[in-house]
Amino acid sequence: MKKIILLFTLAFIAQISIAQKTIYYTQPEQLFNRGKEMFLGGNWEGAEQLLKKFVAGSDDTYLSEEAAYMMAVSSFYRGSDNSGYIMEAFLDAHPETIHRDQVNFLIGSYHFDKKEWQAAGERFNQADLDYLTLSEQEDYSFRSAYTQLQLGNKEEATRLFGLLSQNSNKYRDAAAFYLGYIEYSSGNYAEALRRFERLQNHPEYSEEVAFYTAQATFFDGKIEEAVSLSEAFVQRYPASEHLTEAYRVLGNSYYRLGQASRAVSYYERYLSGVDRPLRGDAYFLGLSYFETGNYSKAVQMFQQAVGEPDELTQNAQLQLGQTYLRLNQKQSAQMAFEAASRNNFNPQVRETAMFNYALLAHETNFSVFSESITLFENFLKEFPNSPHKNQVNDILAETFLTTKDYNAALNAINRISNPGRRILEAKQMVLFQLGAQAFINGNMNEATQHFNNSISLGNQDAKARNNAYFWRGETYYRMGNYSNAASDFRQFTQNATSTDENYSLGWYNLGYALFKQQQYNQAVNAFQQYISAEKTRNRPEYADALNRIGDSYYFNRNFNEAERFYAQAADINPSSADYAAYQRAFVMGLQRNYQGKITALDNLMRNHPNSQYFDDALYEKSRALTMLNRESEAIAVLQRLVNDFPKSPLASQGGVQLGQLYYNTGNYQQSITAYKNVISNFPGSDDARNALISLETVYRDMNDIDNYVKYANSLPGGMRITPSRQDSLTYLAAESVYMRGNRADAESAMTKYIQSYPNGAYSSDAHYYLGVIADERKNQDLALSHFRKVIDAGNIKFLDNALIYTAQTEYGKGNFRQALADYSRLANSARNATNKQLGQMGVVRTQSKLGGYHEAARAATELLSNSNLSPETVTEARYLRGKAYQQTNETDNAMADFQFVANDTRSVYGAEAQFILADTYYRWKSYDRAESQVKEFMQKGTPHQYWMARALIVLSDTYLAKGDEFQAKQYIESLKSNYKGDEADIQQMINERLNN
What PROSITE patterns does this protein's entry cite (predicted)? Predict the structure, then answer.
């Protein structure tokens, strides 16, 4: 301390000396002395004013430095906001000043007051304690100690507080308090309590001591004592800033003491004082709510306890699952159990969570990515001695039957070395379902293989085996293998009971398979079995079966029975009775009841003006009128046929008949016109050739052979007279080679024919067969070239097949405009309903590809007006129409189509429709409907997992929009863990949401 005493002695002598000489001082010196006196007297503002005037009028370097020092210090003591900068400026201007230590101490104090701990510590370190006054040394030591405590340097803070507690009267109690606090914060609770004990009645520190004493007691594990101390603190200091923390301690303590109700009471007071509870306390409060039956609030707390990956999060997720079960929210419970099972901080928690997750995935069928199978397998591997082992083995067999990912199920079954009967039952059903799935998606060969494998397992699951017979029969039928189809349908009907959902359809399908093989007597029996078994008479199949019975009797020339069943069919389903009405009329004609035939045909045309049999009805009416020798009426009917249906195949036959009738009535010019129309409109056809032959007769009777020869030789399509016989013989020889199956020789012969007769009468026929040969050899371009010539020639015999090939090929190549032209022509000119529907479907597809959405919707609506479409065609047509309606902003219509398509999620259209519905509801901000839609999708399941992944992303976004961030994150994390696909867009969407 000698340095400090010396400084003060010198200062005292200087003051006496100055006082003795005051009367001799100049004016500036007087200002300095008066300012200094005010400074020493603590009049900081007055000192600053006088010292500023002194500095302004003095050139004394030494006194100016002293004045600057005193002004800087005065700025600090009077609380100037920029005093720190003023003192720093003084040190910068006078780096050798004897006041450096005091100024650094005051700059440190300036930062101390502003809680700028790092800056304060740096300045305190630049001040030498020995050069400060005794009072300053005490302040310095305390402030430095407190600063080190704030900087986390507990060891240095402890040293400085220790010195103060021993040597400082001013800071002894404060130092003791902070030493206790340091022991408390370091976990030395017994030592902390010892230090706090003597300060418990201290007027300044009693509140803090009471609080930290209660806290230290709690952390020391003395729960009951902590409760007593905390309750006393709460009562004594109701306005304390530590009240919220005291409530937390009480809530935590009472939970540990098993008093959940009291824990809830204090924890709720704690919650009212914080923005977000500590995770551990959120967990304990969640447990308290759970134990008191308040499950909704328990969910909220457990969600807040979930945070960074650690054991607390894992436990909270497990408890969330248990709580959701109490609320009967099984899907949410499943997600929580899944989240808990992903971590292994606590193996026992993982085991419990994994078991519950797998159990719920199986029970609720929310195993959208076959998680339950993988989970049960992994569970048995990871926990082979689990008490749940036997239950898991039993459930695994059931899981194979409930999953929609049948490939995953089959792979899992095949991994079982010695499968028991229950597993084999499941395998038979899984193989059947794989076959049905392949059938729905149009993969007939794959479907057949799966059905074969299911049937080959015997009677492990008799229902699955019999269903496999039914659907394999359907598959064979679609492939044109009617013999095998009939065998399978017969096997199905023999084994099925009348309560089987497909029992009646089995007879119906058997009838068709026999009908296709022209086994009409057996077909009648099968169709009649269907009629007896079918309970719902308004099904389209019922009227159709009556029609087929009628057809069978017709082909067996039992016309009376045929007419009777056609009449029944028309009565059963009047809205689509046109076929039955037409056939009935036709049979009347065969029975020579021509007037009855005419009346029936007139009724048909009147009742069904848009019937596809309208042109047939006109043609047959003309024949009936002819048979009644009412030729003028027949001419009028045929004229209507060729005028109203110029592209109909019957227009060519009707044209020939019209020419004959005009000839019979002596109207030669009208006859010539009719025959020429057939030749020009249907070049290359048999009817055109017959028309030319008949035309020769007309011209001969008119004695005008020259004009006939001139006309015939002007024709471009090989109708010339002279070489026609050789032309015909050459082609027929080539066709005979083709029919014998010798493709190489047939190709050579057809090519030679075309070279010899490039415009021959049969050139388009030859081009057709050459196109077939080229297609068989996978030479698509050559096949297209030949089929185009068939189309250009308008060869009716092969036009449908040529158009089907070119349309499908151009579509496959992406030439959608050309494909559209071909499909449109097919839809307008097809000779049977099947080809017409194929053309209509092609128009819908190509218009959709080309962006012609209005036309796509119109074409789809026209196609869907048919009552005999296959389910697959209906699904695709409504899907494409829904997509078109989306583009044309006809939202209600679009949603109606998607809702229909979404019923069957086994097809890719159904799966995408489910996603579209959910996504649309989300975009409409109809969040409850979006959530419900995705959950319905999850319940149904699908093999098309890309669309399930997209739907789950919508569900996550929906929860986020509803403010449920926890559920939103859980679904995205579940998707990331369980989705097996590697599509870049899915991964990007997952990562974006997790990052956000």
Answer: TPR (PS50005)
- Rg, the chain, Cα only: 50
Asked whether the predicted pLDDT for residue 823 surpasses 50, the reply is yes
CA distances to 525, 650, 726, 766, 793 from 684, in Å: 43, 15, 16, 12, 7
Residue 563 has pLDDT above 90, yes or no: no
State the residue for tokens 């004493």: 213
Does the pLDDT of residue 67 top 60, yes or no? yes
Could you tell me if 35 and 51 are in contact, meaning their C-beta atoms sit under 8 angstroms apart?
yes
* Kind and range of the H or E run holding 71: helix 61-77
Which among 528, 521, 524 is positioned nearest to 504, based on CA atoms?
Answer: 528
Residue 109 scores a pLDDT above 50 = yes
Residue 984: CATH number of its domain? 1.25.40.10
Query: Residue 854: inside a domain, yes or no?
Result: no
In a domain, 389, yes or no: yes
53 and 183 co-located in one domain: yes
What pLDDT, on a 0 to 100 scale, did the predictor assign at position 248?
A: 92
- Phi and psi (nearest 5°) for 228? -60, -50
Q: What angle do CA 814, 816, 822 make, to 5 degrees?
A: 125
Residue 170 backbone dihedrals phi, psi, to 5 degrees: -65, -40
274 with 335, same domain: the answer is no
| Cα–Cα distance list, 923 to 702, 780, 915, 929 (Å) | 78, 45, 12, 11
**Structural domain contains residue 535:** no
**233 lies in the same domain as 340:** no
Selection from 606, 543, 648, 564 nearest residue 868 by Cα? 543
Ordered alpha helix ranges (H), 186-236: 189-197, 206-219, 223-236
Give the integer Cα–Cα distance in Å for 307 and 36.
62
Regarding whether 278 and 420 lie in a shared domain, the answer is no
Compute the distance between CA of residue 760 and CA of residue 725 in angstroms, rounded to an integer. Answer: 11
Residues 176 and 185: beta-carbon distance below 8 Å: no
What tokens were used for 260? 């959940």
pLDDT at 402: 65
Domain co-membership, 375 together with 418: no
Asked whether residue 390 falls in the same domain as residue 260, the answer is no
- The reply to whether 662 falls in a domain is no
Report pLDDT digits (tens) over 445-468: 999 999 999 999 888 888 889 999
Mean pLDDT computed over every residue of the chain: 86
The residue type found at 440 is I
Count structural domains, the chain: 5
- The residue that leads in pLDDT, 128 or 715, is 128
Quickly count: other Cβ atoms within 10 Å of residue 925's Cβ. Answer: 10
> Of 131, 133, 163, 134, nearest to 144 (Cα)?
163
The residue-averaged pLDDT of 274-289 equals 93
Q: How many helices (H) and strands (E) does the chain have?
A: 54, 0
Show which of 491, 508, 525 is a domain's final residue: 508
Listed residues 273, 305, 337: the one ending a domain: 305
Report the distance separating Cα 968 and Cα 946, nearest Å.
Answer: 19
Whole-angstrom Cα distance, residue 747 to residue 745? 5
d(CA 840, CA 256): 74
Q: Give dist(CA 354, CA 47) in Å, integer.
A: 79
Locus of tokens 């049937």? 455
CATH of the domain at 391: 1.25.40
For the stretch 149-205, pLDDT in tens is 999 998 999 999 888 888 888 888 888 888 888 888 888 878 878 887 777 778 888
C-alpha 372/C-alpha 366 separation (Å) is 9
- Nearest C-alpha neighbor of 507 from the set 549, 538, 478: 549
Contacts 24+ apart (CB under 8 A), 985-989: 986/946, 986/949, 986/950, 986/953, 989/953
If asked whether residues 44 and 165 sit together in one domain, one would say yes
Q: Could you tell me the CA-to-CA distances from 932 to 299, 378, 922 in Å, in that order? A: 21, 31, 11
**How many whole angstroms from its chain centre is CA 136?**
72
Contact 386, 352 (CB under 8 A): no
Do 328 and 294 share a structural domain? Answer: no
